[in-house]
Amino acid sequence: MPDNIPIDNWQAQMRKGWLEVAILATLWRGRMYGLEILRDLEERSDLVIAEGTVYPVLNRLRTVGLVEAQWEESDSGHPRKYYSLTPTGRKRTRLLATQSSEFLSKMLVLIQPLIEGKPR
Amino acid sequence: MNIELQTRIDTYLMKLRRSLGELPPEDVNDILREIRGHILERAENGGQLTNEKLVQILRDLGEPEEIGPLYQREASVARARSSLSPTLILRATMRWGMNSILGFAVFVAGLFGYGLAGGLIVSAFVKPFDPEHVGAWLTGSGFTIGTLAHPTHPDLLGWWIIPVGLVVGATLLVATTRFLRWMLRFAIRRRIVPSAPVALPV
């Protein structure tokens, strides 16, 4: 890769790519509303670029039937939209987790020599 | 919360509403309600809301002009993939075609498929009312099906254009719809997981 290609853009694309998988993995642990998902992602991953990008992804996951959403009143005074995985969403999340794990294992084998600084 | 802060939130939501464009009103209301909830909940955390704190909350959310189109692309592709409406499907494909060569090629193919299907079906319906000018001809410039102002060659199909037009047109309509819906999965994959083979197999 030439030096003049901005690496920030590449990292942003990679984060976007994994965001959907990360959201599904977060919802695997139980129902959550948007801000809860964001806080969880911020704590456990490095994926959130702008907070507002999470909501369109959640909206799409709901439209394709992997996630369902329900409005509920909260103690804070305004309603929260809670998201949870549908049965199809749970199956798909497991499949994605397996595929992601296999993919990452192979990638790690490929890039490990670079990390360790071994010669070609 | 003072009026200035409230106005700032309202302005942000107004910009977001504008950038949501063609989404159905109930979806727009749902999105605005959720984003307003997000802003208010963050505003309530960590003491009194100041102008600086609100600016930071809105900055963390991102520019409304950038978030709105994400909803539109996500929603229109997802809706099109579960829809039978040629208008909805073609519109989603057109939007994909504005960002991708593959998308543009699929859009042109879809336009051709629907155009031909529509032409055949319309010909079948119009034939009884204008039998002289509706038909199928092999002329010097090639095969023509539909209407000709002054046909000089014999009509190849005659009245058969009615069943042929209806059956072939309807088949082409269904085939084009299925093809476009199938291809739209690549519109989602290219955006969500651009470089990894762990794309969501929707």
How many structural units, i.e. domains of chain B? 2
Largest sheet of chain B: 2 strands, antiparallel
SSE class of chain B: mainly alpha
Order of helices and strands of chain A: HEHHEEH
Strand order within the widest beta sheet of chain A: 1-3-2
- Strand neighbour order, sheet with most strands of chain B: 1-2
Rg of chain B to the nearest angstrom? Answer: 25 Å
Low-confidence stretches of chain B: 190-202
Query: How many helical elements of chain A?
Result: 4
SSE arrangement:
The complex is a heterodimer of chains A (120) and B (202).
Chain A: H1 7-27, E1 32-33, H2 34-44, H3 54-63, E2 67-72, E3 80-85, H4 87-116
Antiparallel strand pairs in A: 1-3, 2-3
Chain B: H1 3-19, H2 25-44, H3 51-61, H4 64-81, H5 86-97, H6 101-126, E1 134-139, E2 142-147, H7 161-192
Antiparallel strand pairs in B: 1-2
What does this 3D model show about the protein?
The complex is a heterodimer of chains A (about 120) and B (about 200). The two termini of chain A are about 15 Å apart. Chain A is mainly alpha-helical. In chain A, strands 1-3-2 form a three-stranded antiparallel β-sheet. The longest helix of chain A has 30 residues, at about 85-115. Chain A is built from four helices and three strands, in the order αβααββα. In chain A, strand 2 (about 65-70) and strand 3 (about 80-85) form a beta hairpin. Chain B is mostly helical and about 200 residues long. Chain B has helices at about 5-20, 25-45, 50-60, 65-80, 85-95, 100-125, 160-190; strands at about 135-140, 140-145. Residues about 190-200 of chain B have low confidence and may be disordered. The interface between A and B is large, with 34 and 39 residues.
